[in-house]
User: Which sequence fits this backbone?
């Protein structure tokens, strides 16, 4: 039974279109919905809607359903539209009229926002942990190969001496800064939306939203019910923007590794275990995972644009358009997590070719160093610059 059922049947084509892929996507949210629903049952107990025994029976049933959801064994039927409906239907099947009370003082609007907030907080923690793992892998490589020098580049031309420590350290430091962005996004969304209904509050009943916030692990209550609905795409886009910062770091890492492991450079080599081959050229061993990683930056960028543009031009309040932001949000988390794992494997397994790096450090990349040696001897920098340039290019006098 649909939560909005009014005694008529939808056209099957329309029903399939409006349901979309929610049945599949909501499998990732059911456990969080169970957690939020159990807290909501206790809020209803405090509001006098449920007695102690009723609240306990609901909480116990929701606990069992959460266990099923965590094992991916919670059924969501296509005709139920989403996981929220499936959850209430299971409660009614198990508890009869008591199950019908769980939706008191709640709308699917604040129900889905609450589950998504809990989901996003956990996924941001997962991504932060994976960033730490990649940074640790970079630092291990710095300890092992940091002293190896190779050219640094500006304008894609040899510029000054660099080193593996400087190169890898730039990614480690950038990723550490990116964690601040992830943390800022997490702090923003760490607000309890439960108890705001469809966006205009709950009439008559007094709900202890501070209690719900504490029990759900939110730092604070999001007080304005209308803003709860407007903040859904805003918060999701902010989270995906933070994930895009991670992908920007990985994109640059992939670009460098593809170039520096090519035969034209040869600074690094990639083991065959992280490469694929050509179907026609027997000699080819290709850095395909890095190329896919490079491309997936653009996927996450597209997800952010999709979320932001979906909400653009809508008046205040809930719109079914918001359903279409769920997939790009979830896909962004999946893409970033997978990309971080692949990047960590590549970083740990690549080899630095000391001879190739040394051979590439030709005399001209030490020109700036020679100029500053003259500065140390008392020569003005501009004169030192000119003198070294003349040595390299010949004087026009």
Assistant:
């Amino acid at each position: 039974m649909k939560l909005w059922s009014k005694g008529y049947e939808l056209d099957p084509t329309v029903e399939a279109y409006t349901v979309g892929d929610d049945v599949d996507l909501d499998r990732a949210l059911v456990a969080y919905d169970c957690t939020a629903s159990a807290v909501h049952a206790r809020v209803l107990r405090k509001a006098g809607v449920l007695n102690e025994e009723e609240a306990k029976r609901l909480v116990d049933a929701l606990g069992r359903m959460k266990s099923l959801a965590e094992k991916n064994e919670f059924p969501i039927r296509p005709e139920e539209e989403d996981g929220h409906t499936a959850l209430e239907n299971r409660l009614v099947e198990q508890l009869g009229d008591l199950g019908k009370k769980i939706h008191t003082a709640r709308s699917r609007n604040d129900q889905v926002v609450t589950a998504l907030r809990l989901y996003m907080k956990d996924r941001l923690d997962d991504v932060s942990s994976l960033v730490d793992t990649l940074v640790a892998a970079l630092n291990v490589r710095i300890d092992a190969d940091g002293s190896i020098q190779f050219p640094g580049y500006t304008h894609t031309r040899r510029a000054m001496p660099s080193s593996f420590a400087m190169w890898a350290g730039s990614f480690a430091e950038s990723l550490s800064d990116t964690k601040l962005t992830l943390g800022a996004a997490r702090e923003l969304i760490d607000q309890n939306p439960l108890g705001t209904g469809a966006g205009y509050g709950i009439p008559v009943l007094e709900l202890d939203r501070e209690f719900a916030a504490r029990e759900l692990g939110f730092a604070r209550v999001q007080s304005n019910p209308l803003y709860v609905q407007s903040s859904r795409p805003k918060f999701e886009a902010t989270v995906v923007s933070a994930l895009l910062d991670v992908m920007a770091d990985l994109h640059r890492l992939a670009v460098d590794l593809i170039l520096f492991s090519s035969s034209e450079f040869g600074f690094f080599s990639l083991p065959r275990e992280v490469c694929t081959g050509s179907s026609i050229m027997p000699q080819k061993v290709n850095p395909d995972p890095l190329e896919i990683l490079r491309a997936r930056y653009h996927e996450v960028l597209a997800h952010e644009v999709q979320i932001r543009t979906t909400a653009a031009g809508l008046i205040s309040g809930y719109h079914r358009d918001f359903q279409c932001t769920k997939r790009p949000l979830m896909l962004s988390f999946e893409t970033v997590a997978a990309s971080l794992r692949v990047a960590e494997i590549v970083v740990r397994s690549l080899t630095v070719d000391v001879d190739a790096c040394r051979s590439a450090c030709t005399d001209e990349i030490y020109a700036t160093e020679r100029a500053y040696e003259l500065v140390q001897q008392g020569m003005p920098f501009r004169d030192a610059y000119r003198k070294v340039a003349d040595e390299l290019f010949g004087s026009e006098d």
User: Anything to note?
Assistant: Residues 12-101 form a domain with the Fumarase C; Chain B, domain 1 fold (CATH 1.10.275.10). The radius of gyration is 28 Å. The first strand starts at residue 149 and ends at 154.
